[in-house]
Amino acid sequence: MTKSDHHDRLVDAARKARARAYSPYSRVKIGAAVLTSDGEVYAGCNIENASYGLSCCAERTAIFKAVSEGARKIVAIAVVGSSEEFTSPCGACRQVMVEFNPAMKVLRRGIDGYSEDTTAGALLPGHFKPAELSKK
Q1: What are phi and psi of 55, to 5 degrees?
Q2: Who contacts 104 (Cβ-Cβ below 8 Å, separation ≥6)?
Q3: Which end of the chain has the smaller Cβ count within 10 Å, N or C?
Q4: What CA–CA distance (Å, rounded) separates 12 from 87?
């Protein structure tokens, strides 16, 4: 399978996950899917809660699903929303993404035709690094 095939598969999984979003408050639907180094794909959607702080973004849902199944190396993530502004991962999601791979490819797609490819590290320059924990 080519890199392009993997990316198409990833974006398709994110689109399907978007349809399962639970967003009765914002009505914003986001889907995400991650590709692991062994070729597995894990998808997730945003899940809202009446207590907004308990909501979870699609990106973290997909990453947490992969990690809970044993994956540790995530090579790419696709985020699908309605437009550019609804494909931009929040700060918490960006920090989780760089935890698993700062070079992770980030494929942002809007159902309105918006498309951008970047990396997790580019989205969060100066991110908090595990090495910071050992500094005294």
Answers
A1: -70, 160
A2: 74, 75, 76, 77, 97, 98, 119, 120, 121
A3: C
A4: 15
Q: Model pTM greater than 0.85?
A: yes
pLDDT, one tens digit per residue, over 65-100 is: 999 999 999 999 999 999 988 899 999 999 999 999
Residue 81 near residue 110, CB atoms below 8 Å? yes
pLDDT of residue 136: 62
- Is 59 among the residues known to form the active site? yes
DSSP collapsed to 3 states, the chain = CCHHHHHHHHHHHHHHHHCCCECCCCCCCCEEEEEECCCCEEEEECECCCCHHHCECHHHHHHHHHHHCCCCCEEEEEEEECCHHHCCCCHHHHHHHHHHCCCCEEEEEECCCCEEEEEHHHHCCCCCCHHHHHCC
Q: What's the chain's length in residues?
A: 136
**pLDDT value for 125:** 83
Residue 135, token pair as written in the block: 């500094």
